[in-house]
From TrEMBL:
This is Sigma-70 family RNA polymerase sigma factor. CDD domains: Sigma70_r4. It comes from Neobacillus driksii. Pfam families: Sigma70_r2 (PF04542), Sigma70_r4_2 (PF08281). It comes from the Bacteria. InterPro entries: RNA_pol_sigma-70-like, RNA_pol_sigma-70_dom, RNA_pol_sigma70_r2, RNA_pol_sigma70_r4_t2, RNA_pol_sigma_r2, RNA_pol_sigma_r3/r4-like, WH-like_DNA-bd_sf. Residues 22-85 form the RNA polymerase sigma-70 region domain. Belongs to the sigma-70 factor family. ECF subfamily. Keywords: Sigma factor, Transcription, Transcription regulation. Residues 120-170 form the RNA polymerase sigma factor 70 region 4 type domain. The lineage of its organism: Bacteria, Bacillati, Bacillota, Bacilli, Bacillales.
Length: 183
């Protein structure tokens, strides 16, 4: 990125030029950081778009107390957390996310494995939101208990309790469903 001017000349750019400069200099960083929170490329790109819209709207209010990069990253983190807390994110249909991680043993499974995965996905979706969100964040998004605790602003013991209750409900539902189907 040799074309990118240092931060001194940016002061003399108009709003549109400044926005273009910031997008060129930090656009990939913004998308990468959003992706680390959301684990979904399209959502990360949507967040990046929102970040640069906010940046443009608030550009005149920037007080140079931090670097532009720090300012953009802070906006990105806050926007990503807002998405994680949103009704839309928590209530999406997660069937595509529930694809099993490929392993040698999963490659050897037959049609019944596909049925099992569909059953588990359906049961996760039917969990109460409080249990569903920690199950999804822990198992499918692979966040740690501490990260989930920070994201959801919950005590880590509360996250552990919800994970335990979610697992119990899934186990009960799974055993019940297989008993009914005769497998």
């Amino acid at each position: 990125m040799a074309d990118i001017p240092n931060s001194e000349p940016i002061k003399h750019l108009n709003r549109e030029e400044k926005l273009k400069w910031l997008m060129t200099a930090y656009g990939n960083d913004v998308i990468r950081i959003a992706y680390t929170y959301l684990k979904h490329k399209q959502m990360a790109e949507d967040v990046a778009q929102e970040v640069f819209i906010k940046c443009y709207e608030k550009m005149d209010a920037f007080r140079n107390e931090s670097s532009y990069k720090t300012w953009l990253i802070r906006i990105t983190v806050n926007q990503s957390k807002d998405v994680l807390k949103s009704w839309t994110f928590k209530n999406l249909y997660f069937t595509d996310i529930f694809k099993p991680k490929p392993t040698l043993s999963s490659l050897q499974h037959s049609f019944s494995s596909v049925e099992e995965n569909q059953l588990i996905s359906k049961q996760v979706i039917e969990l109460p939101v409080k249990l569903r969100e920690v199950i999804i964040l822990f198992y499918y998004q692979e966040f740690s208990i501490e990260e989930i605790s920070d994201m959801l602003k919950l005590n880590s013991n509360t996250v552990r309790t919800r994970l335990h209750r979610g697992r119990q409900k899934l186990k009960e539902g799974y055993e019940g469903a297989w008993a009914i189907s005769g497998k």
